[in-house]
Amino acid sequence: MNVQVRLAGYLEQGGIVYQLSDSEMHNARQHRWAEPLAQQLRRSLHAGLSEMAPPNGGQLTVQLSQFQGVRSLAGDRAIIRGVWQYNAGGAVTRTGQIDWQGPLTGDGYAGLVETLDQGWQDVAHRITAALHTDGS
Prior knowledge:
Elements lengths: L1 E6 L7 E7 L2 E9 L4 H15 L7 E12 L6 E12 L2 E13 L4 H26 L3
Parallel strand pairs: 1-4, 2-4
Antiparallel strand pairs: 2-3, 4-5, 5-6
Helix pairs in contact: 1-2
């Protein structure tokens, strides 16, 4: 299966993103992804899908609108939001929403990265389950 990951523009700047309020985003200068985020997420998603035996062939496209930490009085959390689309034989055969969030598993950026990784693995499981449930 071919996998593509597309990011909202503000996520492509290399730094880990932390939302400080409804109107303020912080793109870290010192805490950066080891490689371009879309490439890293694509490789991780492809590996996760391969382990779970998704349908052969086709094209999975994931468009992420959020992949970040969010500061909150109720406790900081990680959020992953977007949509996915699976095409086979030149036609869209499956679509779905991505709406994942979870409390940070540790402090600081290391805790955020660990939580986002766990969330991304969960997203891969959910996409694979949706592909199998829908009969492909």
